[in-house]
Amino acid sequence: MYSAMPMQGTPYRPEIDGLRAISIFLVVAYHAHPWLIPGGFIGVDIFFVISGFLITRILLREMESGGFSITNFYGRRVRRIFPALIVVLVATYAMGWFILLPDQMQLLGENVAASVAFAANLFQISQAGYFAPDVAENPLLHLWSLGVEEQFYIFWPPALLLIAGSIRRSPWFGVLAAVSFGVSLIGLFGHKDWAFYSPLARAWELLAGGILAGTHLSSRRFAIPENLASVSGLLAIFGSALALDNSSPFPAPYALLPVIGAVLMIASPNSLLNRYVLSSRLFVWFGLISYPLYLWHWPLLSYLSILRNGVPNFLEIWAAVAMAVILSAVTYRFVEIPLRKRPEMVPKLSAGLAAIGVMGIAAIVTSGFAVRFPPVLQDIARIRVEDNPGFADHCFSETAGASLDASCVEQGDRSLVFLWGDSTAAALYPALKDAEDRLGSFRLARFTLAGCAPILEVGLNTQCDADNRKVFGFVRSARPDVVLLHAMWGTTTNLEKLAATIRELRASKVPRIVLLGPVPVWKRTLPHALINHYRFSHDLPVRISAGMWGPEGDRMMESFSKGAGIEYISARQILCDEAGCLTRLGPSASDVVTTDMVHLSERGAKFLVAAIGRTLLPEPYGQLSNESKAPPAEAGKRVPN
């Protein structure tokens, strides 16, 4: 991930910097547009091979000449790694102060502390996986790879001292690499994150470079086997970058392709590809700035995504990449180069990095410096899905001690409204229960299943199929007057299976089937959209016209309902108009309509239920009508600084 400082007797190989340029191109392109190079994350694996080769080559030559010093080794690493890392950590922390919500700032503090300890990879094991949808909210996620390298180099020099002089050195290298590769296979058995982040599961990639460093490389010029090897290596790298994606079992066994590709290219110093392409000035320059570019590009892309509610446009993304290149060139020229050959800076750099660790701890203990925001925004930032009591109801499948049984059907002789759906339907339950208590004209049954739309026999999730079939049994036995179907309907909804479910409901003599369309889906979360709006205007809008997915799902489900001959109620048309989608119904955090991307708050659910009551619920309806009045669009609250 960085250029090793050449030692006396260790010739500089410009084509390795060129290979490093390919690696950083892949990583940056993947982070900018995952669809562009779906397997671009393999660039990190190439970095590992390069690092293992360069460092092992230096260590072996020092050990063979009798000049090895563990103190000098770690001193060189401090001077090489710390300067750019300190600059980027300080800048990332400063940007986070102005951009991040308290919980995000607290997470940043945790990442800073872990990164300073070079344990970011171990910290990430307990967090969202590298390929999780919300990783863009972690500006320091990429430092996991630095943790892997530094943990490897804690143990590698002593181990190398033990085996460097052995005539069986190469077999020992091979045994260690094979053991590490075997450990990495645990990713195939349900431990994907551990295999991805663990130094034990990644060591074989660095050892692949180490094995190569222990061999004698040919000095022949333009050897045909080298030309074939380098081209084969390049094809292996780009083939895996295009063929793999975030669903591939990784690192093992698929990391073998880019690792072998990198080994072949490094082993071919005299190939035409290496001498005339990778050794060109442009490739070498990008290779030289690849370490600071790796450090800079992800925080900039992460903060851009946060500020743009998860959907920055093409020009914004590549403007951020261009800025990362400029900052990397400046960092390399004015920070890395001046400090690289100054041994007296090691204590100061170490103290500086430790001070940044203290800054990270401060963000943790202060809960992300919540005092940066006015009280009302602090309250909004603390909104959680669990604030809606519907998620504590025992008839919601994710509740601790959930029991989807006859207790979920209220007894009596009043009309029965049967709520069936996923977690978005669970959010509606408290509002429907409140309407029942106030009107006294109906009773409720509710069965809500996390992640499971009310569709029978979809076949994608056996637990969903089993639970939905169980719910359908209660539909048949309870004989409801109205079945209300609600879910996070979208383009992935299996309309054919939904139509079959409706036919089964009809066959069970259900008098009314009502499909409630999808609520607005916010691209980053509604609380985050509100606070983003505050950052620039210092007010809290009643409606926001950007930052949520369009009405396509609503139109799709309305068209489906007409074709299926069932009633349809558009939640989107109630919550959104030409001025935007409703964000809040009053001045407090409890009045915010949606708690995350899609789940309504209790207040938001009551508003929606009141609005659909005339269509859905038995009379009398008038007692709910006041709940359905939204504040005027101009009622945005000015928030004091």
Describe the structure.
The chain is mainly α and about 650 residues long. Helices cover about 55% and strands about 5% of the residues. The protein has two domains: about 15-370, no CATH class; about 385-520 and about 550-575 and about 600-625, SGNH hydrolase (Rossmann fold), CATH 3.40.50. A five-stranded parallel sheet has the order 2-1-3-4-7, with helices on both faces. Strand 3, helix 21 (about 495-505) and strand 4 form a beta-alpha-beta unit.
Q: What helical percentage do the residues reach?
A: 55-70%
Largest sheet: 5 strands, parallel
Mean pLDDT: 90
What is the radius of gyration computed over CA atoms, rounded to a whole number of angstroms?
29 Å
How many distinct folded domains? 2
The span between the termini is 43 Å
- Order of strands across the widest beta sheet? 2-1-3-4-7
Percentage of β-strand residues? 5-15%
| Poorly predicted parts | none
Query: What is the strand tally?
Result: 10
- Overall spatial form: elongated
Given the structure, what is the number of helices?
A: 25
Q: Class by helix and strand content? A: mainly alpha
Question: What does this entry show, briefly?
Answer:
This protein is mostly helical. The protein has helices spanning 14-32, 43-65, 70-99, 102-116, 120-125, 144-163, 169-184, 192-197, 199-213, 224-243, 256-266, 272-278, 281-288, 290-307, 314-340, 346-365, 375-381, 423-426, 429-439, 462-478, 495-507, 526-537, 552-564, 571-575, 602-616; strands spanning 415-421, 442-448, 482-486, 512-516, 539-540, 543-544, 567-569, 576-577, 580-582, 637-638.
